[in-house]
Fold:
Amino acid sequence: GTPVINLGSATGAIPAGVTGGAGLTGSTSLGTVTAGDISHADIVYPAGHIVQVRDIVTGVDENTSSSSPEDFMEDTITFTAGNEILTIANVGYFVVSGGADKGMAARLYDETNDAELFTRTMYLNIPSDTSNEFGGEQTLMNKTAFAGTSVQIKLQYRATSGGTVYVGINSHLILMEIQA
Structure:
């Protein structure tokens, strides 16, 4: 069989040929990385592993009465080909004026490939009432495996039925690279 050597009283560095296992526990384990860069081309991340996160938070308020999408926030992420990008956006809004079915639409837009990823529209449906105002938050999510290694994602918004939409401070646009 394999020779067993008692290293209970040994000191110094573990030789390069020694690998981890059940015998390397406690204070003699291979340790925990607490600082530095643990990225390397030879590391194989498991499927579903979050490789990187980009979180953009706005510090401005904007508004529009336009029924065409307007840019609010955007970011570009560079990623490993074949991995997916999970996009999460949270936008606070307030709608005033307009018709009885006034509202706002928010969408995630792929600027790189000129493609809509996800749109969500919120309406205030109160017949013959044009004075009510309403607000809230919308959360949008999309997971896509894009071609290439870089994509620019935009969070856009627009008004419906002549309303005026205000979008605001502390809205987030989060892009996460997910290992395929």
User: Anything to note?
Assistant: The mean pLDDT is 84.
